[in-house]
Amino acid sequence: MAFNLKRSVYMFLGQGGHKDGVDDNPDRGFVVFVSARNPGAAHKEAEKALGERGWENVEILRGGEVSDKPDKKPHDDAWQEARDGKRGIIVYDVKAEASEAVETSPRQA
Prior knowledge:
Radius of gyration: 14 Å
Largest sheet: 5 strands, antiparallel
Shape: globular
Order of helices and strands: EEHEHEE
Structural class: alpha+beta
Helix content: 10-25%
Strand order of the largest sheet: 3-1-2-4-5
Distance between the termini: 35 Å
Low-confidence stretches: 96-109
Strand content: 25-35%
């Protein structure tokens, strides 16, 4: 019996990062790209990636498989990192105006 070892790229959108009792560390929005064999494993991998980078009180709002490389930066770079077996994380600065979210380069977690 052959096993399907195919890994897909998943993207998760969420918010979090604040530490209880720290006023100058507000929630931030994020996008995480990870590689996994199924959605459940991908969700766990995304939470693990954020936890390893010190994020707390993370809430993943939605996510799913992204089969094609996105057309725009920094999402295309983060997708490629996940495709290469790394984790691509894009952080949005919520201190900026809502219509002017600041995107950072994807980071390997």
